[in-house]
Amino acid sequence: MKYLLTIYDDESMWSDAQPGDVNTMMDGYRKFGEEITTNGAYVAGEALESVSTATTVRVKDGERLVTDGPFAETKEQLGGFYLLDCKDLDEAIAYAAKIPGAQSGCIEVRPVRVFA
């Protein structure tokens, strides 16, 4: 079953981070990527640009409304995701706990809906 693991964190922490801290975090992401690839769970994954680059699109009564910025003001922003193929939710949760962003933010684990 496929699970989407979305990474939420306060992106402002990156502006204050020391180079050594950034390197440590990125090493953790590289190691995690190697593990999920080696184990055959990796389907896709990407990091996202800052929330300041977001554009939100809504359609109301057939009219498109485009605004700069994210959908809602929050303390944590979506920073990236992994799409994994796991045997069950327990395995997906185990992988989520290994994502470095779980130490400073949170990882949402959600199964991918399969339409029959």
Fold and architecture overview:
This protein has about 120 residues and is an alpha+beta fold. It has one domain (about 1-50, about 75-110): 2-Layer Sandwich (Alpha-Beta Plaits), CATH 3.30.70.1060. Helix content is about 30%, strand content about 35%. The protein is built from 3 helices and 6 strands. The chain has helices spanning about 15, 20-40, 90-100; strands at about 1-10, 40-45, 55-60, 65-70, 75-85, 105-110. The strands form 2 sheets. It has a 4-stranded antiparallel β-sheet, with helices on one face. Strand 3 and strand 4 (about 65-70) form a beta hairpin. The longest helix has 20 residues, at about 20-40. The mean pLDDT is about 90.
Which properties best describe this structure?
4-stranded antiparallel sheet; 3 helices; two-stranded antiparallel ribbon; about 120 residues; alpha+beta; Alpha-Beta Plaits
